[in-house]
């Protein structure tokens, strides 16, 4: 008898000439190997079939949803504070929510694939032509469309080290080569990035303010970089957090003059519509129409389009959010100094802090019901990123953070 998955069975026998032989373990191993090799040949797995670059593709790690943490730790979801994804703690404009709800009444219809009304609103707001806008399922999709349009096998894409990870993911997805330029004091080195450009470079990505550092480059630095780029390179300025700046760089003039620059923006941050997934890019109409060829026809849903239009119009809500965010930033920065906590000066809606061990801080704070983002995936293992929350949330995050740091040093 021998053991198999199905319990004890008679050891299989094989005949050799007139002699009956019991199959040895060695024979069985050999047989399994042959079966495995045969199966591989005629029955490949999905991993054998997909494009090889997909197997090398790193997986994006999003901020942990409240419900996951509540389930894992047996906590009441309403007591959990999520400061992990740079969302708007004040929610969305009530006007945007009302517009989204109204759009639900016609939800049986496909959305306007051309996003006519939203493009009209954006054009009015940014004083550009509607044909200069492409709308995405989040600005993330617009970044991916740039990959579709420009990046092929072996093409280089220049970005700062530790920049928003989607630039690297998009590059790798299309078989490109991410060229990461070291930062200086947590700021992107734009002249270094210009120097990293080669004949194979297709795109240069920069977020200013940057995520996850929160640092920002000056207007002069950005313009100097653009000036230094050759004609075969498209410069992409990711303006996901530009609404938080007092005086953001404005590339509309350069776009009008024909410089190869393109900007992306989102409704996920200051407009508080992250759950609806809506963002956009703007640039030269020729580039926009080329990007549109790679776009799925109904990529921006009807509720998101309606809410985005109303959100754009509610300037007083945006101003209120800017003000509250600035207060939250001051709250943290003023307390970090006396506590001797190292942080990066932020220009966005989050603050990035050196806690010695990002994962340990993340876990300890999570036990307190505060979800933050450890930055190991960005090569910043000692750091966590904490989104600015409401006053109450900020106070809870600071208390949890200081308790973690005290325990570490104590
Ligand atoms: C720098 C940057 N760009 C783009 C995005 C993507 O935003 P969304 O796809 O929600 O528009 C984010 C989101 O965190 C970001 O931090």
Task: Describe, in plain words, how this protein is organized in 3D.
This protein has 410 residues and is an alpha/beta fold. The chain has three domains: 13-49, no CATH class; 63-88 and 316-409, Aspartate Aminotransferase, domain 1, CATH 3.90.1150.10; 94-315, Aspartate Aminotransferase, domain 2 (3-Layer(aba) Sandwich). Helices cover 42% and strands 18% of the residues. It has helices at 25-42, 46-49, 52-55, 66-73, 94-103, 116-126, 139-150, 165-173, 190-195, 219-228, 252-256, 285-293, 302-313, 315-339, 358-367, 391-409, and strands at 2-4, 7-9, 13-16, 19-22, 81-82, 133-136, 156-160, 177-181, 201-207, 234-238, 261-266, 279-282, 343-344, 350-354, 370-371, 373-375, 380-387. Strands 6-12-11-10-9-7-8 form a seven-stranded mixed β-sheet, with helices on both faces. A hairpin with a 4-residue loop joins strand 16 and strand 17 (380-387). The longest helix is centred in the last third of the chain and has 25 residues, at 315-339. It starts with a strand and ends with a helix.
């Amino acid at each position: 008898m021998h053991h198999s998955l199905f319990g004890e069975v008679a050891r299989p026998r094989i005949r050799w000439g007139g002699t009956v032989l019991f199959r040895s373990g060695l024979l069985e191993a050999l047989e399994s190997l042959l079966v495995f090799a045969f199966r591989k040949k005629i029955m490949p797995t999905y991993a054998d079939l997909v494009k090889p670059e997909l197997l090398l593709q790193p997986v994006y790690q999003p901020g942990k949803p409240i419900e996951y943490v509540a389930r894992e730790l047996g906590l009441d979801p309403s007591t959990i504070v999520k400061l992990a994804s740079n969302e708007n703690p004040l929610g969305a404009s009530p006007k945007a929510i009302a517009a989204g709800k109204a759009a639900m009444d016609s939800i049986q219809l496909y959305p306007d694939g051309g996003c006519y009304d939203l493009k009209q609103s954006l054009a009015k707001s940014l004083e550009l032509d509607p044909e200069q806008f492409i709308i995405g399922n989040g600005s993330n999709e617009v970044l991916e469309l740039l990959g579709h349009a420009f990046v092929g096998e072996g093409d280089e894409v220049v970005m700062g080290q530790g920049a928003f990870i989607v630039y690297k993911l998009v590059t790798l997805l299309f078989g490109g080569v991410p060229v990461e330029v070291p930062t200086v004091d947590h700021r992107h080195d734009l002249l270094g990035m210009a120097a990293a450009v080669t004949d194979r470079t297709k795109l240069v990505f920069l977020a200013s303010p940057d995520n996850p550092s929160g640092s920002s480059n000056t207007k002069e630095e950005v313009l100097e970089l653009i000036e230094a780029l050759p004609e075969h390179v498209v410069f992409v300025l990711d303006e996901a957090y530009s609404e938080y700046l007092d005086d953001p760089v404005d590339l509309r003039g350069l776009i009008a003059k024909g410089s190869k620059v393109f900007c992306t923006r989102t409704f996920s941050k200051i407009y508080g519509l992250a759950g609806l997934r809506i963002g956009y890019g703007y640039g030269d109409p020729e580039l926009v129409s080329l990007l549109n060829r790679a776009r799925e026809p109904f990529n921006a849903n009807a509720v998101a389009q309606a809410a985005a239009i109303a959100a754009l119009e509610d300037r007083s809500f945006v101003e209120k959010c800017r003000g509250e965010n600035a207060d939250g930033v001051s709250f943290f920065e003023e307390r970090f100094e006396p506590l001797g906590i190292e942080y990066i000066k932020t220009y966005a809606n989050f603050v990035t802090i050196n806690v010695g061990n990002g994962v340990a801080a993340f876990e300890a704070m999570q036990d307190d019901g505060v979800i933050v983002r450890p930055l190991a995936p960005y090569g910043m293992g000692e750091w966590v990123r904490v989104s600015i929350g409401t006053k109450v949330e900020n106070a809870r995050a600071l208390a949890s953070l200081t308790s973690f740091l005290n325990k570490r040093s104590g």
